[in-house]
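Key result, reporting period 2: structure in, sequence out.
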C-alpha cells in the first residue's frame, strides 16, 4: 500500500486539535473517520494483480534513432483501474515519459507507448513494470511490480555509409575500364579488343588474331571472389575514447564500410572480433545479408580490459581461410609493446597474405603539438610529439615488412581504409 501526500496532510490536520484542544474524544473521533476514509479508499482501489500485461518488444534500432516500447494492459477487475504505470527501462535506453497515468475501465484494454532514444550501443533491458492503483479519493494506493522482461538491441549507426556510393563508383570504374593491364596473380579475363600502340605484346591472343585480319589483345579485370578477413581488436586498448567515441566503435565503422564495399566488389568477406577469444564472428556464408549479420554481431561487443593475445590470431585467420587473402587488422598502434606482439604477427601473416592495418589516431595529439604558449603546454606538446613519432616508427616497421598501414583520425579512417582496399585491388595484389 502506498500512502499519498494528501493523506499525510490529513493526518497532520487530525493531530492539530490535540495541541489546541484537549478534547480527546474529538481527536479520536476525527482520527477514526480519517482512517476509515483511507481504508475504504484502499478497498475501492482496483487490484493491480488483476491487470494482465503484455509487452511488444521494440526489436532492433540503430544508435540515437527513435523507437517505442508498447505495453498492453487488460483490466480484470470489476472496478475501473486508475493509477500510474512505470516501464522500467535502464537509463541508457533514453526513455521519454516512462511513468504515465492510465485509466482502464473494467474488462477493457489500454495501450501504453514509451518512446526510446538509446544513447548506448548494445543490449538494453527493462526487467519489470510497476503498477500503482489509486482509490476514488486518491488517499491511498495499491502497488505491485510485475516481472515483464523487455529487450532492445541497439545497433551500430554506420555513419560511414555516406562514403559508400563514391567508393562503389571507384570500384565500377576500376572494373569497367576497357584495357586494364594488371599483371600477376589476382586477374580475370575480361574481353578481347584490337591491339593499339602501347599495349603489352604479352597480352596478344594469337588464336583470336589468326581468325581475324587484325591483331587482338586480351583485357583483364581485377579478380573477383577473393577472400577478405577482417579482425576487430576488442582488447583493453579498444576502450579508449577518442573524440567522445570508443576506439572500438570507430573500428566498427571502418569494418562495416570495408565489408560492404568488398562484398559489392565481388569478394567474400569474413569478420571476427577478438582479444583472447572470439567475441563475435560473421562468415562469408552470410553473403546476401552481410550488413545485417555484421551489425547484429557487432551490437553486443564491448571492450574487454585484458591484453590482446596476438599469438592466437594466425590460427584464427587460418581457420577462416587457408588460401591467400586480404587480412585487415583494426587495432591500435600504441598498444603496449608492438615489437613483442603486433610486429611479429604481421611478419608471420605477410608470408601468405596481404595485410592491411587500420588504426585510429587521436586528433588531440595534433592539437597539443601546436599549443606551446605556457610551460605546461610545452611539456604536453613534447609528449604529443613523442607519441606521434612512436606511431610513425611502428608504421614504418610494418610497411618494411610488406603491410599496408592506414593511421588516421576517427572520421577519416573508414574512407581511407576503403581507398587502400581499392588501391590493392587495382594493383592486382588481392
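The corresponding designed sequence is given below.
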Amino acid at each position: 500500500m502506498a500512502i499519498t501526500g494528501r493523506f499525510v496532510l490529513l493526518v497532520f490536520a487530525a493531530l492539530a486539535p490535540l495541541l489546541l484542544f484537549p478534547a480527546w474524544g474529538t481527536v479520536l473521533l476525527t482520527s477514526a473517520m480519517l482512517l476509515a476514509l483511507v481504508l475504504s479508499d484502499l478497498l475501492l482501489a482496483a487490484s493491480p494483480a488483476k491487470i494482465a500485461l503484455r509487452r511488444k518488444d521494440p526489436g532492433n534500432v540503430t544508435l540515437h534513432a527513435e523507437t517505442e516500447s508498447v505495453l498492453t494492459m487488460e483490466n480484470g477487475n470489476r472496478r475501473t483501474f486508475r493509477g500510474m504505470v512505470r516501464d522500467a527501462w535502464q537509463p541508457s535506453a533514453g526513455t521519454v515519459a516512462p511513468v504515465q497515468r492510465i485509466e482502464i475501465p473494467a474488462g477493457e484494454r489500454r495501450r501504453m507507448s514509451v518512446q526510446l532514444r538509446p544513447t548506448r550501443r548494445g543490449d538494453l533491458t527493462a526487467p519489470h513494470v510497476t503498477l500503482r492503483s489509486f482509490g476514488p479519493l486518491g488517499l491511498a494506493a495499491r502497488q505491485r511490480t510485475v516481472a515483464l522482461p523487455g529487450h532492445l538491441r541497439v545497433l551500430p549507426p554506420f555513419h560511414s555509409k555516406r562514403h559508400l556510393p563514391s567508393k562503389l563508383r571507384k570500384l565500377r570504374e576500376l572494373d569497367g575500364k576497357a584495357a586494364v593491364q594488371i599483371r600477376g596473380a589476382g586477374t580475370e579475363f575480361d574481353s578481347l579488343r584490337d591491339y593499339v600502340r602501347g599495349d603489352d605484346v604479352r597480352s596478344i591472343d594469337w588464336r583470336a588474331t589468326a581468325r581475324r585480319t587484325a591483331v587482338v589483345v586480351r583485357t583483364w579485370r581485377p579478380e573477383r571472389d577473393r577472400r577478405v578477413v577482417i579482425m576487430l581488436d576488442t582488447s583493453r586498448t579498444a576502450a579508449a575514447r577518442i573524440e567522445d567515441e570508443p576506439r572500438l566503435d570507430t573500428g566498427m565503422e571502418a569494418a562495416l564500410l570495408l565489408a560492404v564495399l568488398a562484398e559489392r566488389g565481388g569478394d567474400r568477406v569474413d569478420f571476427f572480433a577478438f582479444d583472447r577469444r572470439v567475441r563475435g564472428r560473421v562468415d562469408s556464408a552470410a553473403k546476401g545479408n552481410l550488413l545485417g549479420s555484421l551489425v547484429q554481431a557487432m551490437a553486443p561487443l564491448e571492450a574487454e580490459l585484458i591484453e590482446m593475445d596476438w599469438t592466437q590470431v594466425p590460427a584464427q585467420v587460418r581457420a577462416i581461410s587457408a588460401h591467400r587473402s586480404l587480412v585487415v587488422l583494426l587495432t591500435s598502434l600504441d598498444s603496449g609493446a608492438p615489437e613483442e606482439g603486433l610486429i611479429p604477427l604481421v611478419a608471420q601473416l605477410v608470408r601468405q597474405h596481404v595485410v592491411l592495418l587500420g588504426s585510429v589516431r587521436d586528433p588531440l595529439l595534433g592539437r597539443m603539438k601546436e599549443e606551446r604558449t605556457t610551460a605546461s603546454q610545452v611539456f604536453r606538446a613534447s609528449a604529443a610529439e613523442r607519441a606521434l613519432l612512436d606511431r610513425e616508427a611502428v608504421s614504418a616497421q610494418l610497411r618494411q615488412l610488406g603491410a599496408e598501414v592506414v593511421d588516421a583520425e576517427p572520421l577519416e579512417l573508414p574512407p581511407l581504409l576503403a581507398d587502400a582496399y581499392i588501391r590493392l585491388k587495382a594493383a592486382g595484389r588481392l
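The first helix runs from residue 5 to 20. Residues 14 and 29 are 9 Å apart (CA to CA). This case is discussed further under Risks and Mitigation.
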